[in-house]
From TrEMBL:
<dbReference type="InterPro" id="IPR017441">
    <property type="entry name" value="Protein_kinase_ATP_BS"/>
</dbReference>
<dbReference type="InterPro" id="IPR011009">
    <property type="entry name" value="Kinase-like_dom_sf"/>
</dbReference>
<dbReference type="InterPro" id="IPR000719">
    <property type="entry name" value="Prot_kinase_dom"/>
</dbReference>
<keyword id="KW-0808">Transferase</keyword>
<dbReference type="Pfam" id="PF00069">
    <property type="entry name" value="Pkinase"/>
</dbReference>
<dbReference type="GO" id="GO:0005524">
    <property type="term" value="F:ATP binding"/>
</dbReference>
<keyword id="KW-0418">Kinase</keyword>
<keyword id="KW-0067">ATP-binding</keyword>
<dbReference type="GO" id="GO:0004672">
    <property type="term" value="F:protein kinase activity"/>
</dbReference>
<feature type="domain" description="Protein kinase">
    <location>
        <begin position="14"/>
        <end position="297"/>
    </location>
</feature>
<dbReference type="GO" id="GO:0043539">
    <property type="term" value="F:protein serine/threonine kinase activator activity"/>
</dbReference>
<feature type="binding site">
    <location>
        <position position="44"/>
    </location>
    <ligand>
        <name>ATP</name>
    </ligand>
</feature>
<comment type="similarity">
    <text>Belongs to the protein kinase superfamily. STE Ser/Thr protein kinase family. STE20 subfamily.</text>
</comment>
<keyword id="KW-0547">Nucleotide-binding</keyword>
<protein>
    <submittedName>
        <fullName>Mitogen-activated protein kinase HOG1</fullName>
    </submittedName>
</protein>
<dbReference type="InterPro" id="IPR047173">
    <property type="entry name" value="STRAD_A/B-like"/>
</dbReference>
Amino acid sequence: MSGPSEWPTDASHYALIGKIGQGAFASVWGARTKEESSRDCAVKVLNLDHVDSNLAEIRLEVQAMRLSSHPNVLACHTAFVQKTDLWLVTQIMRKGSSLHSLQSARRRYRDENKGCRMEDHILYIFHETLLGLKYIHDNGQIHRDIKAGNILLDGNGDVRIADFGVSGWLEQAGSKQDRAKTFVGTPCWMAPEVMEQIHGYDYRADIWSLGITALELAKGYAPYAKYPPMKVLILTIQEDPPNLDSYDEEDEGDDALDQLVVDEEWSSSFRSLVDTCLQKNPARRPTTQELLQSKHLNSLNDEAKRDKRREAIRKEVCDLVQDVGTESAESNSANQLPGNTPVSIVLSQQDESRPQGTTWVFADGSQVLASSTNNAATVDDVMNDLDQFGMQTGGEHYARGAEGEEAIDINEECRVKEDDGEEDDLNKFMDDFELNTGGENFKRL
Ligand SMILES: Nc1ncnc2c1ncn2[C@@H]1O[C@H](COP(=O)(O)OP(=O)(O)OP(=O)(O)O)[C@@H](O)[C@H]1O
């Protein structure tokens, strides 16, 4: 393989062939170097307006990314600034995201009236991802954005984790000093402790996201994906962890999701694997090593069995899916459901001008202070008000207006007048909320 320094660091040396996909902060392209012996690659173009780390920091991190080498982590060849964009040149994974591949293959089987059972393929992807994640965790890092859109498949069935390090560069809300307490992520995959930011979080947040990813691959979309980000945050904090059955009831009759939903039988071992990852108390979640040794995945540690699974996914999935990044390929964007919009979270306790608590900052810059006052609301009140708010602000993404817009206090927005006679419900909701959040947030003033 060529050394990383040999990759050109000027955009004019690359030909962009076809768009692979569009994320919230970046577009990704299939590309080729314009050298005599041209090399294929993917180029992720991040608009610098959304990049808040300074370039020296990014350079150092890219250096680290280039040095990190694992068969299940996407290799980064080089990175450079081009006008107002940051270009990240990486390996290209021909089948794109694992979700895209599984869903495309499922559609093919369905069209041909053939049965297909994806559980073994999902377990294989899960196991490969765990190996990459173990490498990341063993190096003292947290990925922070594990989801099927960042788990990529190549034509031969290889699996690699993408976007390692990138989420840390994205636009952070709050001042530089707050940054250690700031987090950017996609709500549907975010662990409850990351949303609350009470006791901080560690690598076990990635294990939660991996559990959500297993659900996503199994069902075709992440739990709560149909809801706007703020509602996802509240449901994740309040409700029992999702599982393979829970969102069937939730989403029944939803036309948009009916297109995506997958109806398959799942083994009890797979169900229990998902449940193990999705424990709200992070201390109860297993480490990558424990998962690799668990009865659910143990057999895949055998090289011969792994090779067999790789061959099976190549034949039964990869071969049915068109390569991404070619002129004719369709864009491989993750479905743009509301809950897939990134949100950043800031702990605002140090800022005396604001009430204590966590601030959730949405991709469009709108903010919600999850703090408390004497008034409280029932869950339904909160949800109704969020819906209202969504409507007023243009819907799905709660696109609040321009810069300088005031942050929205959930309680301010959801305040229910005492004479509505709902005080008891409201108090109960706040008590539950305090309980769920460990009592530090949502403190009554
Ligand atoms: N190196 C690559 N090879 C093949 N496909 C890729 C590569 N990198 C990214 N993709 C695909 O390109 C699409 C866009 O990726 P991108 O990382 O910009 O957005 P995302 O992860 O879907 O969402 P966001 O980053 O906004 O949370 C995704 O479907 C992803 O799977």
